[in-house]
Amino acid sequence: MQTAVSEDIETNKSILAEQIRNCKKKGAELVVLQELHNYLYFCQTEDVSAFDLAESIPGPSTDFYGALARELGIVLVCSLFEKRAMGLYHNTAVVFEKDGSIAGKYRKMHIPDDPAYYEKFYFTPGDLGFKPIDTSLGKLGVLVCWDQWYPEAARMMALQGAESSDNENEKKRQQEAWTISQRAHAIANGLPVISVNRVGFEADPSGQTMGIRFWGHSFIAGPQGEILALASSSESEILITDINLTHSESVRRWWPFLRDRRIDAYDLSKRFID
Amino acid sequence: MQTAVSEDIETNKSILAEQIRNCKKKGAELVVLQELHNYLYFCQTEDVSAFDLAESIPGPSTDFYGALARELGIVLVCSLFEKRAMGLYHNTAVVFEKDGSIAGKYRKMHIPDDPAYYEKFYFTPGDLGFKPIDTSLGKLGVLVCWDQWYPEAARMMALQGAESSDNENEKKRQQEAWTISQRAHAIANGLPVISVNRVGFEADPSGQTMGIRFWGHSFIAGPQGEILALASSSESEILITDINLTHSESVRRWWPFLRDRRIDAYDLSKRFID
To answer: What is the CATH number of domain B9-254?
Structure first.
């Protein structure tokens, strides 16, 4: 689902709930929401009052979305502004099981910081590592936004048995580079990738910039990077597709990248090799 | 350059030399040849007599191509079947400096093995690691074929200061996945990528299969994954483009992936994390 949102959190949640119910009606078993779906993208400015938007996990939003997952019997991936303690906040994805319980959470690991995307002001880098979340539908490797650009992150998920990869995303300079990077994760790791982007225009509350037009184009790719479903650049939209895990098994036999990794020769935990 | 070749090594070398001279006439300073350019792709079958094609480095081919690099004043990237010792062979790229000297070599690290691509029979995995080769035109991160599919390999080159990445390639199931993987390397590492593929039909000497039609489509991508030049699927062809290293510097400022790598959280030297 990619869904344009407004300043009114309660209205946003109602719209999202209605759309999630529509997904279920269309047969979806797994529903993935965009990054920080409850509200506008508040990182356009650095504003201490925006910390009021954060909430604990579990908390009101996990109660709300957990109840929805239970009501519909779906696995649901949400994205929340987590208040872990006073002065300690994360950008956190929460995965709900079909019974409404929390299957696991992932705290965004790579935090960007650019003009109009002041995320380092708001979010402490995640400390839960790259761990796929076990669900009744398979192991989900959840990555958020800036994480999606890192081949290391996708590989870490695959090495821990991820069977599909969910991405929640909002920030981009070039849509094509964004798409290519994630299709390449699918290819390199023999995994389907579900990539959900924000959509629509959001003004800059500070008036310093022209605001951000999020470009949508959410997509689902198969384990060879092939596009299975693609949303528009401008409209709120629901994408539905079947994910065939047997096909992933076949692809990993045809393209046995894991067989031939040169683990003796990778030295990827250095900042730079001077 | 992508160049169809025949069974006649001397004719192949003459054609390649003529094409390299054409590159120079068109203004090229760096010329990159395809994988194992001197001969047909002999890995279609497992045949001990094919080891006769191998030669030492330095040896006759490095004399030949080194002289050409010196004559034309170009940096030249070749790909040879290296005989390191009796019973010890590698798939080795050799980079020549403008004065004809060997600037460095790279032994293919990831060796595939699939029906009609029996490379594990011929090539011992490289033991020189992923080290960019310093030339008067910049640091070249050379990767060969199966290597190109590994984000770890491209990242290793970037961490050691590679300023561009050269790929020599022949094997593929799906051209699109191949292209996407390498454009993603360019994006993730803020590097131009030069990717050279074989082209044309080569019969299976054993008659067991229908042979291989190599798909060409050699390309050069900029540091945002943008395609700068693209060759055809069927013809021998020379691609010429300018590579602007100042642009790479700008792109690494706009997309500071190296800044935000979570080196504390990558555990990529395990085979699998059970």
So the answer is: 3.60.110.10
